[in-house]
Amino acid sequence: MGEHTGELKRTPLYEAHVARGARIVPFAGYEMPVQYEGVLAEHRWTREHAGLFDVSHMGQATVTGADAVAQFERFCCGDYQGLKDGKQRYSVFLNEDGGILDDLMTARPTGQDGLFVVVNAACKDADFARLEGGLEGDAKLTRLDDRALIAIQGPEAAEVMAKHNPELADMGFMDSRKLSLFGVDAYVSRSGYTGEDGYEISVPAADAERVWNTILEDAKVKPIGLGARDSLRLEAGLPLYGHDCDETTSPVEADLTFAINKRRREAGDYPGAARIQRELAGDLKRVRVGLKVKEGAPAREGAEIADADGKVIGRVTSGGPSPSLGSNIAMGYVPPSHAALGTELKVIVRGRSQAAEVVAMPFVPKRFYRKPEQAA
Amino acid sequence: MRFTKDHEWVSVDGDVATVGITAYAAEQLGDVVFVETPDAGKAVNKGDSFAVVESVKAASDVYSPVSGEVIEGNGALSNAPETVNADPEGEGWFAKIRVSDAGQVDALMDRAAYDAYLASL
């Protein structure tokens, strides 16, 4: 994420965070809650019950018009023509060199024409300007800056939300619907950024505080800050844009090959396809892996990764303690020759070499809700 | 007990200073998950980073309020870093340092001055 200068913005929930005793920090140009009662307690609460997150700093928009889907696909490697109504799909915006400009969720919500898009806060102005400048035909981007985005995550999230609208219980993982919730038009997807079951809920900014406080009336739900959001997504193996991937990394390097959908891969019709197709064919210099740090201090962003002989081969892009595992975990980039599960590596923390091992991600099992008939 | 603007505390017994981070610092850090304390025999200068304390979010240096020689690091913190949150100005001490210049301690803030400093932040 870039450095932000100038005045910090606030989400529609800022006052609600302050009222509940949150510690506020600057993040991606916003004053955001980093924690309420403490990162560890909030992390564990989300894994065991349900955590409520304000992610209103993220960018929301619709892309509409008869040409919307085909035009939108020009900026990314996702197959959105093949995306069924009512479904959401992860993708990345790419530059002409195949570098990741941002990662995003794009949905075709039932009850909504065209696409509903959610992008990262630090990238949203650039993303939307690029789309506005590049969409052709009658495809039209509409920023939804007047909407808040609230995520509820955890094993009890579904039970909590079913009381507010039973239809939510009927949604499977990555389903997306526009429906009435709390008396307002809401975009709801069954997804999130923690590895848990849950929903992301877009509501008008004017209703955000009422929705937030209403959900929090249930004792199963506690507000969760960005600190635990980061440790939860790290355990889930999910990359954080600007850290674990950026304009220099391709989706193949970032272990996001699944975001290059088959139709696009076969057509090779996306930005940076020359590099990415080459990488898909095996010409790959580095790849994002998960690391278990087996001794010593947490290895954080920037720590060097060395092979068993001590030769530096890469760098940690995210890392820290895993509250669920009780050990230190990290993700970082290494050459494919050192990316196999079980490879013994070193991480260098404050000049000290510590044993690490390449392990599978997610570090903790995902617990998404899949409807029985959708089982793959 | 004396205090620094970097939120370390010093408690002197004879020529030995016990050093740690203040309750304010521990509260600001949040959950402490890792502590690295210095080994006995290490020479430290006032202002040197002599220990590291890590929360879930980040690693922070701890600066020595005094010059001297470390005679003991609090090894108990490696297995129980949460002690820093539970008892920052007691069992959560970081190191004992044989002070080479007692005047350095006298120059630090007393409790009233430190409280006034915190109120000004």
Explained architecture:
The complex is a heterodimer of chains A (376) and B (121). By secondary structure, chain A is α+β, with helices and mostly antiparallel strands. Chain A has helices spanning 14-19, 39-48, 68-73, 124-134, 157-162, 205-215, 226-235, 262-267, 273-280, and strands at 9-10, 23-27, 30-35, 50-54, 59-64, 88-94, 100-107, 115-119, 140-143, 147-153, 176-181, 184-189, 198-204, 221-223, 287-293, 304-306, 312-322, 327-334, 344-349, 352-359. In chain A, the strands form 4 sheets. In chain A, strands 11-12-13-10-4-14 form a 6-stranded mixed sheet. Chain A has a 6-stranded antiparallel beta barrel with strand order 15-18-17-16-19-20. In chain A, strand 17 (312-322) and strand 18 (327-334) form a beta hairpin. Chain B has one domain: RNA polymerase II/Efflux pump adaptor protein, barrel-sandwich hybrid domain (OB fold (Dihydrolipoamide Acetyltransferase, E2P)), CATH 2.40.50.100. Chain B has 5 helices and 9 strands, in the order βββαβββββααβαα. Chain B is globular and about 35 Å long. Chain A binds chain B through residues 34-35, 38-41, 43, 227-228, 230-231, 297-298, 300, 320-321, 323, 350, and chain B through 30-31, 33-34, 36, 52, 54-59.
